Structures
1.
Amino acid sequence: MKMDGAENFYRQFHDRTFKYGERPLDPNVRLAITAEQSYLNSRPGQAAVIVASELLCRLSQKVSLAFADFEFDQTFSGPFHGSAHSCLIDRMQSVAPPGQFTAEPARSNDYIIHLGSQGDSWIAHGSDWNLYTGPSPSPLGKAQSANIFGSCLATISAIAQIFGHRLPGELKPTVANALSLESSATDQTDWLPPESYLGELWFVGCGSVGSAVAYFLALAGYKFDAVLFDKDPIELENLTRSPIFHFDHVGEPKVESVGRFFALFNINTKAEPRWLHESSLWAERPAGRPDLIISAANEHNVRFQIESQFPCPQIYGTTGKNWLSNVFRHIPPGPCSSCSFPPSKKETSCATGEVTDTQNPEKKVDAALPFLSFAAGLLAAAEISKLQLSNFPYSKDRGFFEPLGGKPLYSTDIKHRDSCVCADRHRNVHKSVLQGTRYEALCFTELAI
Ligand SMILES: [Zn+2]
């Protein structure tokens, strides 16, 4: 792909941010990531640094890693090994070749993003499932586990706030919990450690949110078998909202990029560069497969395709208008995805923040901000990990992340919709289709209804 300089690159790179009605950050301000040393010595702190660099290179032309270099914890795999500086700079440059990404101490005119429990004028800190952003020091207790979800969401939440408030001098104190999806801390430490096996996961849609779910499952170190459905190729405009897509991947099918990322983690993957309704894998799916569907797609009546076929549990994220990310959980025979997204054009476009591409009115583009896609992917990956914990479920079926709201995390029930396709499903047929699947025991219980 030919590019006439950095300006043209960045105009196209930030296209979805413009379509969302926002401006990119000032290209002349360098963002510097600093971190508390004890945080960097922990797996959650290292994950926070990884996510900060992946996200900031998609928001700013200049990023400096202003913390001392370290070797990644050996529980990370895939591309995250060896020197953090060299790995993260290489990844940032692969996303945005014209960007200026360096590893050097912060300068006086840099804007500082500080990760850890204490330090600068404001901090982003995660401990187990809890997250805090605001003035130093953090009110959260010491981490009892190597769980990365609290620290990653703290980082994403802080970056959303600095984008929304245009690099503010301070952040107001905010606490939330990614296990219960509440805007307060808890001392629950149930978590699923790295290397745990999640079953056979079918990703229906590998765009921004689908690839973000994939990224956070792999970063958390989980093992699974994956089938990836998506016919779309990667465009330059897609790079900012996916933590996996790089500049060199432009033009290739999204499933190939995600599949190659999974291969780095030795995750067995079948890439299916087709829409779900065109796939024989889906049409000829035997009873007992898959264990979970990550339905991160909206096109081609895909929800009806899934819901009319006695589906297994589904978990996915969405991004919406007004600075919102959601995570959805559908455990049969509870309210389904078509209860949430009725097959009406108007409601679907409203819920997903789609807008019409003015160059091509037939084509709907999914406008969202980078940190909203990252958050939707992280929340869905975290929810998938909760399926195997003994006290599941920890929240209601639909979770909300609103980084600029007074309550960053909360959840609500999803209601059955009258005349939805799920009302006609024969229970005994559905139970027999789910027989032997990994999350069968969660279905057809009182909790699921
Ligand atoms: Zn339904």
2.
Amino acid sequence: MYFDCHSHTVNSDGKFTVEELCAAAYEKGMPGLTITDHCDMNFYHERDHYNRIRKCIDEIYEQKEKYAGKMEILCGVEMGEYLYDPENADKVLAFPGYDCILNSVHLVPEARFEQPYNRIPFSEDGSDEEITDYLEKYLDLLDRTVDSFDFDVLAHISCPVRYITGLHERKADMMQFEPMVRKILQKIIDRNIALEINSGGLNPRFHFCNVQNEEIFSLYKSMGGTLVTLGSDAHRTVGLCHGFETNVELLKKLGFTHYHYFKNRKPVAVEL
Ligand SMILES: [Zn+2]
Ligand SMILES: [Zn+2]
């Protein structure tokens, strides 16, 4: 079994409590789990992220104690849309106790679509050119977000593809912007930030879309990237470690020998 470094609880949009998620991870025989609830800055006030993340950290620390010596329970946060409100984002990032901070972009205000990409009805809205433009603006925003704060893992770099192609069956090719992808990867390599291989698309709802992980991780490897985390993006207990076999095989095929988890904001290597 594997460390799953990306999961959600009822403290954001997950369906289970911290306690329930940890119990399920233990039952599955997982060596460790990082809980990374959303702090999406576009919903910061509406969803009371400040108080809910603070509560989540307390709950994670209770479980850390409970499972000490049996399973590694790790405390994380998925910081989304940092540039939407850096001042309040920094308040959440200043909480003590994080093992791992994920950086995500789910919303591209510069694009024509106003919603986060999981809510845009791409199957009926948007020409091919607009989708291409969307991906370019997404990568540009991601690049600027990478420059803006201190984090440990770049989460689901190609997540828009999970929705555009996986859910809505429209063509989306991240690699048509290879120089932009390369620029982002170079920045994270230089800063010892890990790249998450996210398996959130590997289920029937998303038509088993593996979000171009092969192309992206092949490029990352060729650039000297070694720090990789496995993230299921589970919102339910059944999703923990979902799709990891597929992505572990892919990583091995590409020549990676280890994956990582973050403890106390430092990477720990685990043999693949
Ligand atoms: Zn996300
Ligand atoms: Zn997530």
